Structures
1.
Amino acid sequence: MLTEKQVLRAPRKDYMNEAQLEFFRQRLRDLREETITRIDRIRGELSEEHRECDELDRASTEEETRLKVREVSRASKLLPKIEEALCRIDDGSYGYCADSGEPIGTERLLLRPTAEYGTAAKAQREGIEHTHRDHDVDA
């Protein structure tokens, strides 16, 4: 199995070869397991009953609970993205921008293994989303 350094040092002609695909497949599987474990841990923490008498303690506990619920929500949204990335490995489209078909790049994939778009396409999409959000607010 390749290391992260080997993936980064690989020649361009080796981009998304079988060894790199296996590297990212394993990275995504590990990320899925870590995410599930984190969700389960936080849900367990949330299910523990806290009875705070002090108003300040209660406010602090409520804030902690809000942050934990938000973390579970974010982690839960990551799981389908992981599954989609694994499907892209299987269908041969992993590592290539869904808009342009150009390589996303190993550096970006190491930072965000679920990436579906190259940096330019992602920036463009975020700009469009931001513009639509601004128009929705103005309406």
Note: The two ends are 53 Å apart (CA to CA).
2.
Amino acid sequence: MKVVLTQDVKGLGKKGELVNASDGYCRNYLLPRKLAVEANSQAMSELKNREAAEKHKLDTEIAEAKKVAASLEGKTVKLSAKAGANGKLFGSVTAKDIAEVISNQLGINIDKKKIQAEDIKMFGVYPVEVKVYNGISASLFVSVGE
């Protein structure tokens, strides 16, 4: 019997999947416990609509991430910090500081966990990689000065 799972069932499948299970298992276990619904035309159309909605959402997120990555690519953000006589900073510039500067100067909110950079401890220009989405990243430069 073909059924659409409404919850994850160990050994059978995940929520929203169309699976083929034995008639007795469906009638005596899955259907009474509301773990699955019979795969009739209404359930199949709901499954297709849900899959289409998930695909549309994923496509929208990827397009938005590509747009953000394109706006970040190759840009230089300027950051000021206090330093000693030889150009060595008091403390360091962290991913949190870089995220704040990107937000202030470019108007793009980036989570500090998505910024791949070493702690910056001297004046200069440093390359930074920002992972915008899974498989989509952008490179930009951070200029540290007084």
Note: The domain at 2-66 is CATH 3.40.5.10 (Ribosomal Protein L9; domain 1).
3.
Amino acid sequence: MSDHDHDHARTFQADHAEPTSEGARVGLALRELLIEAGHYTPEEERAVIAAMQGASPRDGGRIVARAWTDPAYKERLLANGAAAIRELGYELEPYEFTVMENDDNTHNVIVCTLCSCYPRSLLGMSPAWYKSASYRSRVVREPRKVLAEFGVELTDDIDVRVHDSTAELRYMVLPQRPKRTEGWSEEELAALITRDSLIGTQRAFRTE
């Protein structure tokens, strides 16, 4: 099997010391109000940011590899994603976390049509294309066409399911384990996993 090597991500703009738009100024004011009201402290905010900065698709790969090698864990992951990832030391509170499984008959893809909701504290920063208006609108209307642009060619008998993230709910795709990986260790399997495969914009993997 061959994977899709092209990286659709774009470089993020550097952080700015001061807000540069009206929306950014509103966001800064809201942050200050929430801290002043005691909803969280600056120290807690820094801890969350640090956790997000340390997160990456490697964490998702570890979860997928465990599910591929441990059927009981896979069952728990699909039944209650938040509880299952907690077993491996990951936490997504206060969000709900749902994992959708790809198989021979189904392909799942994740989007956030309203903004860019994404499990950042687990998988790291979302790619720039995930936030784009084009992806957010088109993948709902014409998912097969969008997926084809990522190199995911699906036969007509495969059901494509689009899952729309919300402010309360985050999704992750559990990719289908590639053939000819029997006997591989969890570390070897985890190394196959990419960010795009966890979103659903990649289906095949290179195993040679």
Note: The domain at 56-199 is CATH 3.90.330.10 (Nitrile Hydratase; Chain A).
4.
Amino acid sequence: MKIELKYKTPLEWAVQAVDGIDEFLQDHADAERKVSNMCMSFIAKYPNRYEIIDELTQIAVEELLHFKQVYQLIQARGNQLSPIFHKDPYMKLLMPIFRSDRDLLFMDRLIVASIAELRGSERFGLIGKVAKDQNIAKFYTNLHLQELEHIDSFIKMALIYFPENEVNKRVEEILIKEAEVTESLPWRCAIH
């Protein structure tokens, strides 16, 4: 299933984000750690979903590698990781859409993971287009393409456990909510 965002981030957002690239890199480092942790959380909370453990582990490792690469960019710019792990207003506003039933929550978390990865990939591509620093531009252009692979991964995981029509319907509902959330948020030097 190919999913498409309902709200497209304007290129002007990327210009602003690149102006605050050090802040963006900090947020990005946090985001990569959060995604890796999320994959491990899926394994811990749903150990009976053994069909997806290998793939979740692989994504967790890839996200840690991305974290390492972002951290190297932070260091190369003479900075260190922030000791403050900021809450993500994007995820906070998406939280009410999650259903409380254990299985339905599992589906929702997988779908939101896909959509958040798609949003991140979209924004990485924009950063790659506007960054003047060639190291930043090249890194984000490549990462944009790599992240696209994870989008399908999370949806495919959902399809292992839930009927396709239910997954498709829920993807559509969450895409609509995600567009409302993204459009409503003030622009920040952050992935979401």
Note: The domain at 11-81+99-184 is CATH 1.20.1260.10 (Ferritin).
